[in-house]
Write a structure and sequence with these properties.
This protein is an alpha/beta fold. 35% of the residues lie in helices and 22% in strands. It has a six-stranded mixed beta sheet with strand order 5-4-1-2-3-9, with helices on both faces. A two-stranded antiparallel ribbon has the order 6-7. A hairpin with a 4-residue loop joins strand 1 and strand 2. Helix 1 runs antiparallel to helix 2.
């Protein structure tokens, strides 16, 4: 049994919605509450929200960093669902299709049912019907319309959805922002890099992927692994340009050293 948390990030000017699943063998909510309290906020009342203006809220900045650390320390895995903006009413349906893919391809069916939580903003037009069609009832217990203030795991899904959306926006050429890294990250000097690179470095090890690194013909390990087949669900209604961008950004992942 595991815990799935799902939230979305909506981008009107880019014409897409990206939803993120965060999966963990353990309930992540208590750990999120502990981090909220650690930065001086109130669990159940205050929460991390990616839509907050971070430059004007140092507590939210600190909480964001704490939640990123929590994602790493918990050994959580991440999957994503992408749909066109105009298909927002079908987000729940496509999220269920993405969940079925993640469970099937990663062989996550077990003796006990997974607990699956969706943020209250996720639309489900034909949820029960799709659940039955995909035969998810035998491996999942569903919890719809959950309040993220009261369910901490959803706040991690919020952070992940926003992070991967920025990466996709950069691939689409809509965002082009640089940030400074350097000595704090182990480099000799400070220098500017694309924001997408920094975000990718923080999320790449968490994407669902194959269990082993492939070996090429000359027996040299290839650190490029297939993540698209394990972690990514793209709605059929996505345009070819959006589909290509998603596959380019998330279809493969380099797991070797990036320094």
């Amino acid at each position: 049994m595991g815990y799935f948390y799902f939230d979305e990030s909506i981008h009107e000017r880019a014409g897409f919605i990206l939803g993120a699943y965060v999966y963990s063998p353990d309930d992540l909510s208590p750990s999120v509450y502990a981090q909220i309290q650690a930065v001086g906020l109130r669990p159940g009342i205050d929460e991390f929200k990616s839509s907050t203006k971070m430059d004007k809220d140092p507590q939210q900045q600190l909480l964001r960093d704490k939640i990123r650390e929590l994602l790493w320390n918990a050994g959580a895995k991440v999957g994503l669902v992408v749909i066109p903006l105009q298909e927002r009413s079908r987000l729940g349906e496509e999220a269920l299709r993405g969940l079925e893919k993640i469970i099937r391809v990663n062989e996550l069916r077990g003796e006990r049912a997974h607990q699956v939580f969706f943020d209250e903003g996720i639309f489900f037009k034909d949820g029960p019907k799709i659940v039955n069609e995909l035969k998810l009832n035998d491996c999942c217990d569903f919890h719809f319309k959950q309040n993220s203030r009261l369910l901490g795991g959803l706040q991690i899904a919020d952070m992940v959805a926003h992070t991967m959306s920025v990466m996709l926006l950069e691939t689409l050429g809509i965002v082009n922002k640089e940030v400074r890294i350097g000595r704090d990250e182990g480099y000799r000097n400070n220098f500017d890099v694309n924001l997408g690179f920094v975000l990718w470095a923080s999320i790449r090890h968490h994407l669902f992927t194959m269990d082993r690194i492939a070996v090429v013909d000359d027996q040299i390990p290839s650190f490029m692994v297939d993540t698209g087949s394990y972690a990514v669900h793209i709605a059929d209604s996505c345009s070819s340009s959006l589909r290509d961008a998603v596959e380019k950004r998330f279809g493969e992942c380099h797991l070797g050293c990036i320094h």
